[in-house]
Amino acid sequence: MGKTRKKVLITGCSSGFGLLTAVAAAKAGFDVVATMRNLNKDANLKSALEKAHVHAEIAELDVTKPETINAVVQRFGPFDILVNNAGILMGGSFLDITDAEMRSVFETDYFGAVNLTRAVVPDMIKNKSGLIINIASLAGRVGHLFNAAYGAAKHALIGFSRSTRLELKKFRIRVVSVEPGYFKTGVIGNNAYLTEKFYDSNSPMFELNRGFLKMMMKDIIPKAGDPKIVAKKIVKIMKTPKPKNHYIIGKDAWLVVIFQWLGLLKLIEQDVYIKLIRHARRKMKQKKKINR
Ligand SMILES: NC(=O)c1ccc[n+]([C@@H]2O[C@H](COP(=O)([O-])OP(=O)(O)OC[C@H]3O[C@@H](n4cnc5c(N)ncnc54)[C@H](OP(=O)(O)O)[C@@H]3O)[C@@H](O)[C@H]2O)c1
Fold first, then answer.
1. What is the pLDDT of residue 282?
2. In angstroms, what is the span from residue 152 Cα to ligand 1's centroid?
3. Does the annotation mark 150 as catalytic?
């Protein structure tokens, strides 16, 4: 009997897009292997699967640990589809971030996806078929102030997608880059890291750093979108025989990209900068009052 269900490997399924995509893909009839780096965090995924009356294999996989990647590929492979979703964000100025912090973002957001791709592609080449979906970000298309490590790693991931797409075309393996704007998940909430020196008042970036945090809290996070939209789109891509190379998701992302295409990105950058300075000035005034 021929194989009917496509097997999907998804990273970072303890929360956010990963969790929602695992459930939506299982509902859509895919054979899902939902992975996470810490199996103690599997409760939310398990209850979401139960609620949807669907099944997915749950396995431990840390994208920075090759032994966990190999174990999953050996146990559950070969895979038809890989979703490189795991990611972390580290808020703070490029000036203050330590080398170790900068590298930890790259290890997860860029090298993690590279590690996974290299682990699953040999089987896809044998099968002459496959789909790799890299969850990049709008931050991989435009500058992301006080988030340079994240922005740079996502730019690198989009570059990796573009290059691997060309290399793998011959084997009928497609590579897709998904580039969402802001959506309400852990990466911009409870899971967001701040650089160790974020609150170091000796940094020339101190007030701007904090102004940016304030701007995120007041102007950006409350307007962030519903992450189910992204999960739905990812599953749609899985089902599409000829997917596009890039998917921009969210009104905020589209607005920025259209301004970029029109050569008017400066206007948006200026708007963000004015808001940032306004928040930073308020902080400085508050500080002066306290010091009086
Ligand atoms: N939400 C947005 O606005 C947005 C926009 C654009 C792109 N993205 C991207 O979307 C992807 C998913 O993030 P999310 O928004 O769904 O946020 P999230 O809820 O924080 O999910 C991130 C997931 O990545 C996992 N992870 C972190 N480091 C890992 C590692 N070394 N190995 C395996 N898993 C690891 C986390 O696991 P733990 O629970 O163990 O930390 C978590 O399951 C990320 O690549 C993010 O950059 C998000």
1. 73
2. 16
3. yes
The model carries a pTM of 0.95
Q: Which of 150, 182, 199, 247 is catalytic?
A: 150
pLDDT of res. 290: 59
Residue 131 resides in a domain: yes
Residue of 11, 15, 234 with the most ligand 1 atoms within 8 Å of its CB, for mutation: 15
The CATH number linked to 169 is 3.40.50.720
pLDDT tens-place string over residues 249-292: 999 999 999 999 999 999 999 988 888 888 888 766 666 665 56
Residue 142 structure tokens: 């435009």
The response to whether residue 247 sits with its C-beta less than 6 Å from ligand 1 reads no
Average pLDDT over residues 214-239: 95
Strand partners of residue 84: 134
Distance 285 CA to ligand 1 centre (A): 36
Q: How many domains are contained in the chain?
A: 1
Domain carrying residue 200: 7-205+224-251
Assigned domain for 2 exists:
no
At residue 289, the 3 state secondary structure works out as helix
Q: Are 153 and 110 in contact (CB under 8 A)?
A: yes
Using a 6 Å cutoff on CB, does residue 37 contact ligand 1?
A: yes
Q: Is residue 197 part of a domain?
A: yes
For a mutational test of ligand 1's pocket, the pick from 44, 88, 183, 247, i.e. the residue with the most ligand atoms closer than 8 A to its C-beta, is 88
Provide CB contacts within 8 A for 263, sequence distance 6+. Answer: none
In a domain, 14, yes or no: yes
Listing DSSP states for 24-58 in one string gives HHHHTT-EEEEEES-GGG-HHHHHHHHHTT---EE
Provide the pLDDT for residue 35.
98
Nearest atom, ligand 1, residue 225 CA: 3
